[in-house]
Design a protein that fits this description.
By secondary structure, the chain is an alpha/beta fold. The protein has 2 domains: 326 residues, Rossmann fold, CATH 3.40.50; 62 residues, no CATH class. A 9-stranded mixed sheet has the order 3-2-1-5-4-6-7-8-9, sandwiched between helices. Helix 13 runs antiparallel to helix 14. The N terminus is likely disordered.
């Protein structure tokens, strides 16, 4: 009975945040100061006859390609970390996310799109959404993340058939399973394209399981993963921790950098665990209790204590302004010169520390401490920071005594 009540509350909260149906119908008007974002979409969903829906939650006969132009409201009219859904249709681009154009693409147009939108950075950001996600939510989530992170990368959405219902977990799981080959093909095509020199894969929730499965079979099939796949970011991954361990092992010695966002207060993953044999999910695991995570060089960002407006606490990586900006500046965009050997915890911890010293420095150290514990590359910097703060505090106390 308690589980049933929890599910009802969770479903109600998610329904309250849902977008109205039909928001993808292109609008003609553009708003001054709004941002236009071109997104390449590869999907295994079935197309919808309704232009405002575009794709349903049912399984298509294969993968299809399309491009969407999304309008994001001017910065002064929105909050970082939020998709501002229209209250009614058609959307108002001056204060709401809207679609300006849609085009179906042939296979032969894939390379042309990348040449046009790849840019000088030659980077691609591939986003794979999670369970209980309608197509419009997946599209707008990528638009929000790409914009708010300042990603200098061509945004690519891989959308698999999810019915967008909390009560369709099994259907969604099997749909993700059926989409493994299509995601592998997309990543292979991106890696082989001269316009793409670096790929960051960002996968959320159940999409992280799909991603690891596709990367695993790609590594087994080829002997190793393409060098262009540099970063694999698993946000709130809905993956059995034991399954993840075997998936990661299959990637081989020359694997991409793997970064995991976790939160032990993630209610959506607690629900997932309850219907998946009560096996711990990677996204709520405490890596300090699993030494093999550190031993394998997997980097972890612990968002347990980060505030969230979402009742499920399942999308903190995209909602928190500091985290989403860090995502772009230090992961998707490659970071600053000289940071290639630094762990993600060291870079985020350094951002928290800043140039502050004394008591202010101690506060910054407290912010970076949860990451320092779980990032194996940060330990050398962590001990140095601690000693610097201790000395600064001692100097401050001595100075006060002299007065």
């Amino acid at each position: 009975m308690l589980r049933f009540l929890f599910i009802c509350v969770l479903a109600g909260s998610l329904a309250g945040c849902a977008a109205p149906v039909g928001v993808l119908e292109p609008v003609a008007a553009e708003a001054p100061g709004a941002t236009r974002l071109d997104i390449l979409v590869a999907t295994t969903r079935s197309p919808s006859p309704d232009n405002g829906v575009a794709f349903t939650g049912e399984r298509g006969g294969g993968a299809s390609l399309s491009s969407f132009v999304v309008s994001i409201p001017p910065d002064g009219s929105r909050q970082v970390g939020r998709v501002q859904w229209p209250q009614q249709t058609p959307p108002d681009p001056s204060r709401e996310f809207a679609v300006l154009g849609v085009e179906s693409l042939r296979e032969s147009q894939f390379d042309d799109w990348l040449r046009k939108h790849g840019g000088k950075s030659r980077r691609a950001l591939v986003f794979i959404h999670g369970f209980n996600t309608r197509f419009e939510s997946a599209l707008m989530s990528l638009a929000q993340i790409a914009h708010d992170s300042g990603a200098e990368a061509a945004p690519v959405l891989f959308s698999w058939p999810s019915r967008g219902s909390l009560f369709e977990y099994s259907y969604d799981r099997e749909s993700a399973n059926a989409s493994r080959d299509a995601l592998e093909k997309l990543l292979a095509r991106l890696a082989a394209n001269p316009a793409v020199g670096e790929i960051t894969v960002l996968a959320h929730s159940m999409g992280a399981w799909l991603t690891m499965e596709s990367l695993r079979q790609m590594a087994i099939r080829r002997g190793r993963l393409p060098a262009q796949i540099r970063n694999v970011i698993l946000a709130s991954p809905d993956i059995d921790v034991d399954v993840f361990r075997t998936q990661f092992a299959s990637l081989g010695q020359k694997h991409p950098r793997v970064i995991v966002f976790v939160s032990r207060r993630d209610r959506a993953l607690q629900f997932s665990r309850s219907i998946a044999g009560n096996i711990e999910r990677l996204g709520v695991a405490d890596p300090r209790e699993k030494p093999w995570i550190e031993e394998k060089g997997i980097e972890v960002i612990d968002l347990t204590d980060v505030d969230s407006s979402d009742l499920t606490r399942h999308s903190k990586f995209a909602e928190n302004p500091d985290v989403v900006r860090f995502l772009g500046a230090q992961l998707i965009n490659g970071g600053s010169p000289g940071e290639a050997e630094a762990g993600v915890g060291e870079r985020l911890g350094g951002a928290a520390m800043g140039l502050a010293q004394g008591v202010a420095g101690a506060t910054g150290l407290a912010l970076s401490a949860p990451i320092a514990v779980v990032d194996p590359k940060v330990r050398r910097a962590y001990s140095n920071q601690l000693e610097q703060v201790r000395q600064a505090v001692d100097n401050a106390v001595a100075s006060g005594a002299d007065r």
